[in-house]
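Hello, quick one for you while I still have it in my head. Could you read through the record and tell me how the tokens relate to the sequence? No rush at all, and the record is pasted right below.
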Amino acid sequence: MSDYKIFMGSWCFVFGFPKPASLDQVVKVLSAFGFDGIALGAGFTGHAAPDQFPTKQSRKELVDWISSYNLEIAGYAPDPYCMPWATGDADVLKAYEEYFASCLQMAADIGSSKIRVDPGSFGPLARGVDYNAVWDRVVTTFQKQAKMAADVGVTMLWEPETGQVFVKPSEIVKLLDDVGADNFMLDYDCGHAQAISVLGHNQIQPVETFEDGQLGYIKSLKGKIGSVGLNDSDNTTWMNLFGTHLGLGRGVLNFDEIVPALIDSGFRGPWWGCDAIPMSPDAWADAWTGIATMRELLDKYL
């Protein structure tokens, strides 16, 4: 029996599809491909939003159905760009807090030990915006949410994307420190990490990158990584929004360096995500080849 488990997010089979895959299709394919689990996305083409499964019974039935395909629930992700609460007015923040609370209850009800969070606003910050005020709002909101999540035994994961605010490496580390909650950690996504640490994408001057790329970035996050999504990169961005997410082996990343570095940083799983999102139906093929590549890598280093 291996010391790790591999999952894929339901959202990987939505973007760039002429017809987005249904949750039924995703569950059946991941099961057939031999994945150990699935992370569910709210707001992704009708996959698993709280209002789709409004009762505890309906949520139990959802979990039982997924379990019948030998898949576990590996995580839950609210819509990352549902509303610009970091920079919006008080009404937007209130609406977001209500949305998060409903998603957190959903995560707890389906037995997910992890929930994703994001600042919600596109970055970089516009000229004239009060940086400190936005920073304080994000920190205090994350602190409040982390306490709510801790009360139901859920870890909160922030996945920095370069389309967001606060995506310099130093800002990312400082935000994790300022929130200062044991159950608030970073979701390390290789495509986004390449855009952050190598491309310096969407950063306000002066740009911060690392001479050794992702390896330097990972070192700066020692003890702060709570989840990992592996995907490849060709050093480009998708529509100037965030780093590309290619299938493993389709880009330039050296996973024989990255995976040991992640383990050395303190992350050992047990869940590892295959997060290939080529923005096309190639995601099906990338899932098939990705799980084989990941098992080979993780067998080697864990």
The CA atoms of residues 191 and 243 lie 5 Å apart. Strands lie at 5-9, 37-41, 72-77, 114-117, 155-158, 184-189, 225-230, 237-238, 242-243, 271-274. The two ends are 12 Å apart (CA to CA).
